[in-house]
Amino acid sequence: MIISKSLINIDGEVLIYPNFFSLEESDKLLIDLTNRINWQQDHIKMYGKLIPLPRLTAWYGEPNKYYSYSGISMISQSWIPPLLYIKKRIEELSNIEFNSVLINRYRHGQDSMAWHSDDEPELGKNPIIASVSLGETRRFMLRHKYKKELEKVKIDLTHGSFLLMKGTTQHYWQHQISKTKTIVKERINLTFRIIQNK
Ligand SMILES: O=C(O)CCC(=O)C(=O)O
Ligand SMILES: [Fe+2]
Predict the structure, then answer these.
(1) Quick check: CB of 157 below 6 Å from ligand 1?
(2) The Fe2OG dioxygenase domain covers which part of the protein (predicted)?
């Protein structure tokens, strides 16, 4: 069994497993997913204007599951083998069954994800988010929503790493992937989730 200590020590639990997938596996998964995922450019509405999200996205899972975030509604596409392989590996570690995955593709340093919590109602009371990173290392940050005196937590998510957020984390903490001015290659992140039936 692999043991990991929580990155936050209050109001939730965030576990990191740096080399969860071997280098060979990670390289193969990165190529496979880059080529086989049906990537989309989504837009959000801001001040009445449609703004492209600073990343490409895709939503896979059990058929006909709806998921919405930031006013965008997505319907799931059916699982494909590399996703099922990743899902099986993380389920073995976490002892939890996931039924969907949101995939983000950060094409370069200007792609990012703003501060948020994964607290949409369809994720249930204490969402469990299982996050796998492939490709370029990007910095993941956590900040407490109410205890502003707590320091931000910073962790580099490397090729083949696995991060698990659970307990009350989404109630009390926000997370982000910030932009970077340095030249970076592509990164794919997969967040496996459990969408509850309505
Ligand atoms: O890219 C990441 O590591 C974070 C993705 C994320 O926070 C999300 O999909 O909700
Ligand atoms: Fe998130």
Answers:
(1) yes
(2) 97-196
